[in-house]
Design brief:
alpha+beta; Jelly Rolls; 2 domains; four-stranded antiparallel sheet; 12 helices; 12 strands; 18% strand; binds fe (ii) ion; binds zinc ion; Pro_4_hyd_alph; L-ascorbic acid binding
Amino acid sequence: MCNLTRLRSMALDSSGKQPEQQQQQQPPPRASTEAGLKLRKTPNEELEPDNYEDLQLDFSPVLFSSLERYLPEQVLNSTRNDKARFMRNLLLRYSPETERIRIQRHREYREKILSSYQRLHVEIYSLDPASFFAPSFLNALSQKSEQGLRSIMSQPSAGIFTFEMLNPRFCEMLLAEVEHMEKWVYDSRTTIMRPNTLNKFGVVLDDFGFESMLKKLVDDFISPISQVLFPEVCGTALDSHHGFIVEYGKDRDTELGFHVDDSEVSLNVCLGKIFSGGDVYFRGVRCDNHVNSEINDKEMYDYSHVPGQAILHRGRHRHGARATVSGHRVNLILWCRSSSFREMKNYQKDFSGWCGECRRVKTDRQKLSIEATKQALIKIGAEKASKPSAD
Ligand SMILES: [Fe+2]
Ligand SMILES: [Zn+2]
């Protein structure tokens, strides 16, 4: 058995951000606004809220859509931008001071990058399936059936799916763009936020202008695929993401400790280049309560990266990366989150059906219960047999 004490329970965003749903699912405050307007006490269930997904916002667009049901008439009749501004100001007023400062700083940080970073390959900032994806991936998805999707998937171990995903030309362009970003960071002496608490190198793609492209990638591809492969998480859609690049090799990160991701589903695609080592080792899916529990032999699986090939797994699937011993390895990582899954999880009292340890404990309890019933029946039978017959 491996010692799991090294597992870090949760890797945070570059900005140390807490999971978004904690903000999203708070009941909207019954509050006075700057103009003295008050939010409704109860939501307007007949209202069809606007979609805020294309706007640059400090909070999840889903939160704006749900908060809109509480807006007073006067605000409801204004434009979408005015409604968004009104709700943003309100949310900022009611978020804790530290969170407000973090949001403001992150916004300024992104604005600074967007105003001074010159893009190398402008064409990769908007999703073009025909040039981004491998033909097999496009073909499988065009069939719009579970069978078509599964035809390109390998599942080498429970809950781990691998498939050919990215076109080599797109990988080359993204690699060049990442090098261009790193050069800009070095030349401009900009201090950048790294992708998470474990990686010291790499860039957050969302901070460099890739947010809408990655959102489309999640909405149109990863979310529908995940609904088929991980129905326990994605009965509803994945509605937020954190997209970043990690780099391993000489003068970069070497390995990555044993951990779980802050995601419902993680996509990991190797972009290149030439390298040896860097295998990902997987050790079973766990809920929060069992994240450090022991490994079952059947849960052990090691994966070797192949450029262009993707691996899709639950964020709670415990994993780590072995040392990249030579060359330079660059991977695109997309953490996909579901606010509704996180909300539902808060109400879950019973064992989760997807955690390996929950399943084991549940099976053990069932066995004990069956055994106890059996013993009780045997005892009753023996007592009956020992009583003298009434005849
Ligand atoms: Fe990870
Ligand atoms: Zn569990």
